Amino acid sequence: MAVEQLGFRGFQTIRRPSPELIGRLARFAPPDLSDVMNGSYTVHPGIHPIYPVTRRIAGPAVTVAVPRGAFNVIKFGMQQTQPGDVMVVNAWGIDAFAVWGGNVSKGMQRRGIAGVVIDGAARDPEEAEAVDFPVFARHQATATPPLDGPGEVNVPVACGGVVVHPGDIVVADTNGIVVIPPAAADWVLRQAEGLKERHARVQPVLERGEVTAIDGIVDSLRKQGFAIDGEAPG
């Protein structure tokens, strides 16, 4: 039976998309996935790696919402993860203390979790880097969070301007973070493949140092009243 109360609850079971589907999406960089989704489902760039990550992560979201940073609720969320998952934590952008640190980075890396995305603060970047656990956060802070307080696990959460549902596919690397609803994944893949083909077609033009589609651009500018002269003033 569903938990009826709001603000202090947790769900243990989520629907995860297949590893094969996640792997196909992981072939594409977040900017390309963002482009084919018309800029939607793109996490605000203020949420970024806390150390220089060198690889891409992709996995189903296990979501946590902690409006006052309750660390015990976050740890309950950790317990619901499976290998390959990405934790997504809405900590309401809190910057006074960190809701994630080096010890949990190590523990979740050993658990097989792909990474964590936090709308809030994290700390201990050198410890996360030492175990190669990708941590994306809005801020870096020093102090520890409160243990107790309200929170929810595996409900829709806001993260960097995107609503993330449990089981949504998170793709993240140094370029940014996108979230893909599993129901739209096949469509996103088709669009991304088309974009990849279009990029391939313009490579010869770029190799020659030319500007792509410039004739059409100049024609469009002229139609808008753009004045073009041969010699610059001065």
Folded structure, characterized:
- The protein has 234 residues and is α/β, with parallel strands linked by helices.
- It has a single domain (8-183), classed as 3-Layer(bba) Sandwich (Glucose Oxidase, domain 1).
- Helix content is 31%, strand content 22%.
- The chain contains seven helices and eleven strands.
- The strands form two sheets. Strands 1, 2, 3, 4, 5, 6, 7, 10 and 11 form a nine-stranded mixed sheet that branches.
- It is elongated and about 70 Å long.
- The mean pLDDT is 97.
Task: Label the structural class.
Answer: alpha/beta
Strand content: 15-25%
Mean pLDDT: 97
CATH class: Alpha Beta
The name of the CATH superfamily reads: Ribonuclease E inhibitor RraA/RraA-like
Q: Using DSSP, what is the number of strands?
A: 11
Layout of helices and strands:
Blueprint: E1 8-10, H1 19-25, H2 30-36, E2 48-49, E3 57-65, H3 71-79, E4 86-90, H4 102-111, E5 115-122, H5 125-130, E6 135-140, E7 151-153, E8 157-159, E9 162-164, E10 169-173, E11 176-180, H6 185-207, H7 214-223
Parallel strand pairs: 1-7, 3-4, 4-5, 5-6
Antiparallel strand pairs: 2-6, 3-7, 3-10, 8-9, 10-11
Give a quick rundown of the structure:
The protein is 31% helix and 22% strand.
List keywords for this structure.
single chain, 234 residues, alpha/beta, Glucose Oxidase, domain 1, 9-stranded mixed beta sheet, two-stranded antiparallel ribbon, 7 helices, 11 strands, elongated
